[in-house]
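hey can u check if this looks right to u? its 161 residues, i copy pasted from the old doc so theres a chance i mangled smth
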Amino acid sequence: MCAAPKSIKTPCIGTCSTIYGDTVCRGCSRFQHEIIDWNRYTPNEQSAVWSRIEQVIVTVLYSKVLIPDAQAFKQQLVGQRIRFPEKLDPLVWVNALLNQMERRRLNLSHFDIHLRNPFNALPTPAFHTLIQNEIFELANAFYDQHLERAFRHTDLVKPIT
């Protein structure tokens, strides 16, 4: 049996877009300040970031992907030495697989997961682009709704001296 892939310690997938001015990374869905401060975060703070990312990915993939047997899917990922965040929802594993497919020259049909209609008619690269765009849009919406508003409010509040 193949050794398990190394555990993932960071959401980074090596395609950071914050260096090009994005507030939310198109690769890992972390916010710019989370990327900068990641190594200073406590395990609880890192876990909170992972949870938010998980929620976004699950929201996007829930209606698009069916995983009949999560344990079998996990074994396939391990057998192919795909890095995935094992403690998160199996839909997050699908996203990790898609992020590594092109680079690793893998075929989605070799894994026991199924794209739901009408997504099953899309070629894998087109499906991957679609979900990455949706994940990016949802992460941006979260940032705009929760963090940008907080930052604006902080700028408006003047300390009492």
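The mean pLDDT is 87.
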